[in-house]
Design brief:
Rossmann fold; 2 domains; about 550 residues; binds potassium ion; disordered N terminus; 9-stranded antiparallel β-sheet; Pnp Oxidase, Chain A; 18 strands; alpha/beta; 13 helices; NAD(P)HX epimerase activity; binds ligand NAX; 7-stranded mixed β-sheet; potassium
């Protein structure tokens, strides 16, 4: 099982964070004697079309090892989702034009969705509330913002808050709800019952402290949405005062953040905070499309949620909205605030890694950790940084994909004309680095590198998809080329040449390498920088070599 903390792997920009390691990893099997053989390596999971809200996929079943994928960055790959596509969609969202809705249009769209377009209010509310929860997870890490107070109003905005409370509970947060004016409709009483079944506390206004910052880490303002008129009536006037108080307590970093759903409550739906005395939320989650008042929002985090707007609505209202990335339920509107790099740090929480827990054979220990990384659903756990050094002592690093490991070493494939190949021809010493961020783990491997046999390279080359085989022929890796079209042209020509499905010969300049290790280091991040580092080094004993384990200071 994964802990709730580990399920929420978010990308918040700022400050120190605590990252808990999946709980199941703490249950190490009892130490065993050195196994004579190395268990088979499982293949990496296929591309994970992960949403913006990154929840690890369910554990995968073990598969037998087939060395059949491409090296990192192989040309002409068509992945489900790459970092490149994430980066592209983030850039597109940041620069996208946004349409703002008047109060009348917002209400009209609502009617159309629930009339001719066939939606029910329950559906829209569920999607809206999920978007709010997803946006909160994007910005406010669970480890730092566990206790969430959701203040719900009498209308649909309040309903969105109730739904968000449920999702946040399931994402591992500890929500409490203040819902002083309940609506006697089955939709709302159902949402309340669902929260009661999760033992989520409902707090009367009288029980809330004047200063909310002592008891909560975030407040979600789901009091009023686009149907708000006039000035807030009791008890919401008092609740809004408490939120106002928050903007004057603490500095901008330590202040209890307020997340407003659709409209900052109390603001005019079109004019915004008219006299400047309204709440100043840190985050606004606009739903369907931002309302006019959102133009006046100048907090650091503006998100859009409600990924359900069909083309007829987009066309009719000429809506331009930022594109949602991947399968995400929310998208940031505008640019993310800049990050102080020096403030980025993690406080790792992991089970201890002790000498008597690890396997005597480092290859077996590697397999154990690798398989756990696969089981946890990490994307490309076989990606490793390879560092080579040329004869002048100049190092260079790049990511490659591990294609096999056994007691003889770690194997990857590449172009024998590449820079790494050139370095290796001058200096066979190299280092590999695996970094499994979500598990607070790193493995370093050092050793010497030789080419694998021609038969091994042939066998692997022909196991690859034909597109990858052609890509390997086309690329004269690490040489300067005039443009992308040259590659595409050469690829097209080859595609035509082999369009009859005939055998594609492996080019001489392509093949594998094997690093035979003389050192391993297994690193596990721990709290307060007291990380575990266990190093395996080879020692001569009675004419043979044995692996000796030492603990290194972090
Ligand atoms: N496409 C859409 O239209 C969607 C709308 N949704 C949500 O629905 C909201 C709109 O919901 P509603 O139309 O129910 O309206 P609101 O939730 O904005 O509020 C209406 C309620 O607030 C009360 N109220 C209004 N002014 C008040 C004041 N001055 N003092 C005290 N009470 C006051 C009204 O009597 C009514 O009970 C949106 O902002 C959004 O959060 C989402 O649930 C789903 C999609
Ligand atoms: K609101």
């Amino acid at each position: 099982m994964l802990t709730a903390a580990s399920k929420i792997l978010n990308k918040s920009a700022l400050a120190t964070t605590t990252r808990a390691m999946p709980l199941f990893l703490s249950t190490f099997p009892s130490p065993t004697a050195a196994a004579p053989t190395v268990p088979p390596l499982r293949p990496p999971p296929s591309q994970n079309p992960g949403p913006h809200l990154r929840l690890p996929p369910p554990p995968r079943r073990a598969l037998s090892f087939i060395a059949a994928a491409e090296p990192a960055g192989a040309p002409f790959r068509t992945p489900g989702r790459t970092m490149e596509s994430l980066a592209t969609s983030a850039a597109a969202a940041a620069s996208a034009k946004v349409t703002y809705l008047s109060q009348r249009d917002a209400a009209e769209i609502d009617k159309q969705l629930m009339g001719p377009l066939g939606f029910s209010v329950d559906q829209l509310m569920e999607l809206a509330g999920l978007s709010v929860a997803a946006a909160v997870v994007e910005v406010y890490k669970l480890s730092e913002h566990t206790r969430v107070l959701i203040i719900c109003g009498p209308g649909n905005n309040g309903g969105d808050g109730l739904v968000a409370a449920r999702h946040l509970y399931h994402f591992g947060y500890k929500p409490s709800v203040c819902y002083p004016k309940r609506t006697a409709k089955p939709l709302y009483s159902g949402l309340v019952t669902q929260l009661e079944a999760l033992a989520i506390p409902f707090l009367p206004v009288e029980d809330l402290p004047q200063d909310l910052s002592g008891q909560f880490d975030i407040v979600i303002d789901a009091m009023f949405g686009f149907s708000f008129h006039g000035t807030p009536r009791p008890p919401f006037d008092d609740l809004i005062q408490r939120l106002l108080l928050l903007s004057v307590i603490g500095d901008s970093v330590k202040r209890l953040p307020i997340v407003s759903v659709d409209i900052p409550s109390g603001w005019h739906v079109e004019e915004g905070d008219i006299n400047g005395g309204g709440i100043k939320p840190d985050m606004l989650v606009s739903l369907t499309a931002p309302k006019l008042c959102a133009k006046k929002f100048n907090g650091p985090h503006h998100f859009l949620g409600g990924r359900f707007v069909p083309p007829p609505i987009l066309r009719k209202y000429g809506l331009e909205l930022p594109p949602y990335p991947g399968t995400s339920m929310c998208v940031r509107v505008g640019k993310a605030p800049s990050v102080d790099i020096s403030s980025l740090r993690e406080n790792y929480i992991s089970p201890e890694l002790t000498e008597n827990q690890v396997m005597p054979c480092p290859f077996n220990q590697f397999h154990r950790w690798f398989n756990e990384a696969v089981t946890a659903g990490l994307r490309e756990p076989n990606a490793m940084a390879l560092t080579t050094v040329n004869k002048a002592g100049k190092p260079s690093s790049r990511m490659v994909l591990l294609k096999g490991v056994d007691k003889h070493g770690f194997v990857w494939y590449t172009n024998y004309g590449s820079q790494k190949a050139h370095d290796l021809s001058e200096n066979s010493n190299a280092a590999l680095l695996f970094y499994w961020n979500e598990m607070n783990r790193q493995v370093r491997v050092e050793g010497s590198v030789q080419k694998v046999s021609l038969e091994e390279s042939e066998k692997y080359f022909h196991s690859r998809p034909r597109g990858s085989q052609l890509g390997a022929i086309v690329s004269k890796q690490s040489t300067v080329i005039a443009g992308r079209d040259i590659l595409q042209q050469a690829y097209k020509e080859l595609e035509q040449k082999y369009s009859d499905g005939s055998f594609i010969p492996k080019p001489d300049y392509w093949g594998g390498y094997r690093l035979t290790p003389n050192l391993f280091e297994f690193w596990q991040g721990q709290q307060s920088r007291l990380h575990d580092r266990l190093q395996y080094k080879q020692r001569e004993v009675d004419g043979g070599t044995v692996w000796h384990i030492e603990r290194l200071s972090p």
